[in-house]
């Protein structure tokens, strides 16, 4: 379970997150939606202990991520597909992470198989396409077999086969009882993948709940999203 409670994060005079509260539950895929600059990445960074909150809290099963001694066994995340050193092979990258986190070496082969990278595991990550790096990021998140998974724009750069694969994986992870929390700008993809959505704008909660409730009222998730966020968009083409 992910719980964000009255979270505020300021960078100097910029308020990236302005008192945000929401919950993402086990057994559900929860989509995290919002226009550019809404504070999604900042929220995920605080949730994963990469940034400290100005006030409020973001916890995983009631505890801030940094306080979890189980590390990758407790939560896995894909925040940046460039996280692996380009000079390392995928196998070496994952093996080092497994060792550092006290995970069994067999997990490396298991997650490489899970994400479809077994054949290219001996290639340097610098030669990977963006879609392959995204798959490696997903493999990294899965390494500790954690109950909570967080993915920031996971299908960015994936081809249609990759997008379909990722959708199936997220659904299966949730069906196994895990909390799956993902941000994406691809509303159609979110409509096909998520059970629940959390919509933010300018660092505030705009809506939270089952996707059907939100989409049903407006006609589609895209219509609901555009209506909800129309007052929270900083940049718009054509001066509209
Ligand atoms: N390290 C930082 N220093 C200063 N301002 C920051 C920093 N990180 C984020 N911001 C600002 O905080 C606000 C929220 O940014 P954030 O990246 O969290 O939004 P986002 O919803 O992830 O956007 P996008 O969809 O474009 O990725 C923006 O105004 C951004 O410029």
Automatic annotation (TrEMBL):
Organism: Actinoplanes aureus
Gene Ontology terms for molecular function: ATP binding; ATP hydrolysis activity
Similarity remark: Belongs to the ABC transporter superfamily.
The entry's keywords: ATP-binding, Nucleotide-binding, Transport
Gene3D superfamilies: P-loop containing nucleotide triphosphate hydrolases (3.40.50.300)
Protein name: ATP-binding cassette domain-containing protein
KW Glycosyltransferase (keyword) present: no
Keyword Nucleotide-binding set for record: yes
Occurrences of domain ABC transporter (ranges): 2-227
InterPro entries, per database record: AAA+_ATPase, ABC_transporter-like_ATP-bd, ABC_transporter-like_CS, P-loop_NTPase
């Amino acid at each position: 379970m992910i719980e964000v409670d009255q979270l505020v994060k300021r960078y100097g005079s910029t308020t990236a997150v302005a008192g945000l509260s929401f919950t993402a539950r086990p057994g559900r895929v929860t989509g995290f939606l919002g226009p550019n600059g809404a504070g999604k990445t900042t929220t995920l960074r605080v949730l994963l202990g990469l940034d400290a909150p100005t006030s409020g809290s973001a916890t995983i099963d009631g505890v801030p991520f940094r306080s979890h001694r189980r590390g990758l066994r407790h939560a896995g995340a894909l925040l940046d597909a460039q996280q692996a050193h380009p000079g390392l092979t995928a196998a070496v990258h994952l093996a080092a992470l497994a060792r550092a986190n006290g995970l069994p070496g067999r997990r490396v082969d298991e997650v490489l198989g899970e994400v479809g990278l077994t054949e290219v595991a001996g290639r340097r990550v610098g030669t990977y396409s963006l879609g392959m790096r995204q798959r490696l990021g997903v493999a990294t998140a899965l390494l500790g077999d954690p109950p909570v998974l967080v993915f920031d724009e996971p299908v960015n750069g994936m081809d249609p086969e990759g997008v379909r694969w990722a959708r199936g994986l997220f659904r299966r992870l949730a069906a196994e009882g895990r909390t799956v929390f993902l941000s994406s700008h691809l509303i159609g993809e979110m409509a096909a993948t998520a059970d629940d959505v959390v919509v933010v704008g300018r660092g505030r909660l705009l809506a939270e709940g089952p996707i059907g409730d939100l989409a049903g009222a407006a006609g589609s998730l895209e219509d609901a999203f555009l209506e909800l966020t129309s007052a929270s968009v900083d940049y718009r083409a054509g001066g509209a």
